């Protein structure tokens, strides 16, 4: 039994040792193969390292060669740049010198040509341009005088405005005194308004029959007659009509009232009278009258400053109402300012017309001068052609073989006895040509 167990253990140990030996041999073979692979990889790595080192040496050699070439080229570039900059500097100096010489030469040539031209044409041009120059000088003088005159006129506006106060006080006082004396007579008040209006027109500088008309009789489309107090003419075919027939009876009552109740009633009547007159003016249709040009406004003239100011203070709607109907309510002071403005507009219009007439005259004179110069050039060309034809005819007459002078002189020498001989200048010239 023990023997059998021992035998079994022996076989088992032998099997295990055999298996382990077999495994050891396989592992050794595997390690040996792996060592061979590593040796091959090492050989390849050394070969690749040697190859790369060779290529690196080659690249370093090429780099050093390129570095040397770059240094040489850089040195040459710097030398070339310095030479190029020097050439540019010399070229700029030569260019500047040539420019100066050219300008001097051009100036010299221009001066010579200008001198020659001036000597040849100064007298002729002075003769041709003298009328035009005189006209331009006259125009400049008139323009300067007109400018000075306008400046003085503008300066005088301040004085005119200062005069307004004095005139307004005088007119208002006269109107007030007369109104108190009228005692409600509308006809007399209307005449007084026309008198005040006439005095303001005289002060305005406008001229009757030119810039305004008084009491002109006009007709509408139906033949109805109208007599506006004043028609003010404006430039560009426009008119303004002045009406001075507003009633001041209520204002007179207001002035003479002794109690507040009477004054209140008179004030209401005064405002009502103004509104009524505005309404009446709006229905007259002055713009449809024959002889009235484009109508801008109708001026409702209140000849008493106090009446105007009282109405404006108590009821400022009447002014707007009137304006919507193309009616402007004015007092002596505002009317005078308006008329003075219109007078200034007319003065500017006349000045503009005069300047335009002078300019047109100068333009016409210049065009005449141009036409005259053109005609003179044509005459010069015709004279040149005539001179050329004359020289051709004279050549045929006295130059060349068989010319007429030579022939007739030969005939005369044969025995002709004419009463008159050819000019010696022609015959002598022909003899000289024959000798030549």
Automatic annotation (TrEMBL):
<dbReference type="GO" id="GO:0006310">
    <property type="term" value="P:DNA recombination"/>
</dbReference>
<keyword id="KW-0233">DNA recombination</keyword>
<comment type="function">
    <text>Involved in DNA recombination.</text>
</comment>
<dbReference type="InterPro" id="IPR003798">
    <property type="entry name" value="DNA_recombination_RmuC"/>
</dbReference>
<keyword id="KW-0175">Coiled coil</keyword>
<dbReference type="Pfam" id="PF02646">
    <property type="entry name" value="RmuC"/>
</dbReference>
<comment type="similarity">
    <text>Belongs to the RmuC family.</text>
</comment>
<protein>
    <recommendedName>
        <fullName>DNA recombination protein RmuC</fullName>
    </recommendedName>
</protein>
């Amino acid at each position: 039994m023990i023997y059998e167990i021992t035998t079994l253990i022996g076989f088992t140990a032998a099997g295990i040792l055999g298996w382990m030996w077999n495994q050891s041999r396989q592992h050794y073979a595997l390690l040996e193969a792996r060592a061979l692979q590593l040796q091959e990889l090492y050989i390849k790595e050394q070969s690749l390292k040697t190859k790369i080192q060779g290529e690196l040496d080659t690249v370093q050699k090429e780099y050093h060669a390129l570095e040397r070439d770059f240094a040489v080229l850089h040195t040459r570039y710097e030398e070339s740049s310095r030479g190029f900059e020097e050439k540019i500097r010399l070229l700029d100096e030569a260019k500047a010198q040539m420019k100066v010489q050219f300008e001097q030469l051009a100036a010299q040539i221009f001066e010579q040509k200008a001198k020659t031209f001036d000597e040849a044409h100064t007298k002729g041009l002075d003769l041709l341009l003298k009328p035009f120059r005189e006209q331009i000088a006259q125009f400049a003088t008139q323009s300067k005088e007109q400018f000075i005159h306008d400046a003085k006129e503008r300066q005088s506006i301040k004085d005119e405005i200062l005069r307004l106060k004095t005139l307004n006080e005088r007119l208002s006082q006269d109107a007030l005194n007369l109104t108190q004396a009228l005692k409600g007579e509308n006809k007399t008040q209307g005449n007084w308004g026309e008198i005040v209006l006439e005095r303001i027109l005289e002060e305005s500088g406008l001229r009757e029959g030119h810039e305004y008309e008084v009491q002109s009789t006009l007709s509408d489309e139906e033949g109805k007659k109208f007599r506006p107090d004043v028609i003010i003419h404006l430039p560009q075919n426009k008119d303004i009509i002045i009406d001075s027939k507003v009633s001041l009876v209520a204002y007179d009552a207001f002035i003479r009232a002794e109690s507040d109740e009477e004054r209140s009633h008179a004030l209401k009547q005064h405002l009502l009278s103004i509104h009524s007159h505005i309404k009446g003016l709006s229905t007259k249709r002055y713009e449809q009258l024959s002889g009235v040009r484009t109508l801008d406004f109708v001026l409702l003239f209140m000849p008493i400053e106090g009446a105007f100011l009282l109405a404006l203070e108590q009821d400022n709607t009447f002014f707007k109402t009137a304006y919507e109907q193309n009616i402007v309510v004015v007092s002596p002071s505002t009317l005078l300012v308006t008329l003075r403005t219109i007078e200034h507009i007319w003065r500017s219009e006349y000045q503009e017309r005069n300047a335009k007439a002078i300019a047109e005259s100068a333009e016409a004179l210049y065009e005449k001068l141009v036409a005259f110069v053109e005609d003179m050039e044509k005459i010069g060309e015709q004279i040149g052609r005539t001179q050329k034809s004359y020289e051709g005819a004279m050549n045929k007459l006295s130059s060349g073989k068989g010319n007429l002078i030579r022939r007739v002189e030969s005939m005369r020498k044969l025995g002709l006895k004419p009463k008159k001989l050819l000019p010696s200048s022609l015959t002598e010239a022909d003899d000289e040509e024959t000798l030549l």
